[in-house]
Amino acid sequence: QKEVEQDPGPLSVPEGAIVSLNCTYSNSAFQYFMWYRQYSRKGPELLMYTYSSGNKEDGRFTAQVDKSSKYISLFIRDSQPSDSATYLCAMSATTGGSYIPTFGRGTSLIVHP
Amino acid sequence: ETGVTQTPRHLVMGMTNKKSLKCEQHLGHNAMYWYKQSAKKPLELMFVYSLEERVENNSVPSRFSPECPNSSHLFLHLHTLQPEDSALYLCASSQGTAGLTDTQYFGPGTRLTVL
């Protein structure tokens, strides 16, 4: 079983839709959860991060963590064509003193006008 | 230049060639990383440098050789690569020495093709 599972998609939605992107994980030591956005021909950029369980909102984006289910989500409201990108989840733990994040393989999102 | 820059952006090389990838960060960070990104696979951490010392080497074949001459520059020297090494190679940097909430800032990557 991979440490972090993420459906690669592609996920295709019409403009204005609510998008839900998800990751599951197996390591209960993960405490810090991140979402990166990667446009074509660019490196990933940090979109949001949350520490432990709960929700965090930033504009049209909401990150949600459910540690009991080992499940994290990123919701995008009123999706725009400019949101078309690959979204990578990442998470890190304190195991062994190394905090290097473990990444999912990314979900490709296409928002069509 | 701002952020993290990488050169070249594209590289095509034969299996017997020797080439180097360069990364430079203009953020005053202390940690730098090399990642490999292959299609439909998670980012694979290759090397971590903290304050110019290698702190992690993730079982990477010896045909990849990193070099960190100072906290702003990171190189990846390549020799006798295999076609399966074709991928996007990403450099990243972070403020601290790879702490729990250290945010990594990525460069645009070098698209490497090995013929």
Describe the structure.
The complex is a heterodimer of chains A (113) and B (115). Chain A has strands at residues 4-5, 11-14, 19-25, 32-38, 45-51, 54-58, 61-66, 71-76, 85-92, 102-103, 107-112. Chain A is mostly beta strands. In chain A, strands 2, 4, 5, 9, 10 and 11 form a 6-stranded mixed sheet that branches. Chain A has a 5-stranded antiparallel sheet with strand order 1-3-8-7-6, with no helix packed on it. Chain A is globular and about 40 Å long. The mean pLDDT of chain A is 91. Chain B starts with a strand and ends with a strand. Chain B has no helices and 11 strands. In chain B, strands 2, 4, 5, 6, 9, 10 and 11 form a 7-stranded mixed sheet that branches. The interface between A and B is medium-sized, with 29 and 23 residues.
Jot down its keywords.
heterodimer; A: about 110 residues; mainly beta; six-stranded mixed β-sheet; five-stranded antiparallel β-sheet; 11 strands; about 0% helix; B: about 120 residues; seven-stranded mixed β-sheet; four-stranded antiparallel β-sheet; about 55% strand
Oligomer: heterodimer
Low confidence ranges of chain B: none
Query: Structural class of the helix and strand makeup of chain B?
Result: mainly beta
The rounded Rg of chain A comes to: 14 Å
List how many beta strands of chain B DSSP finds. 11
What global shape of chain A is seen?
A: globular
Spell the H/E element sequence of chain A: EEEEEEEEEEE
Q: DSSP helix count of chain B?
A: 0
- How many separate helices of chain A? 0
Order of helices and strands of chain B: EEEEEEEEEEE
Helical proportion of chain A, percent range: under 10%
| Total E-strand runs of chain A | 11
Structural class of chain A: mainly beta
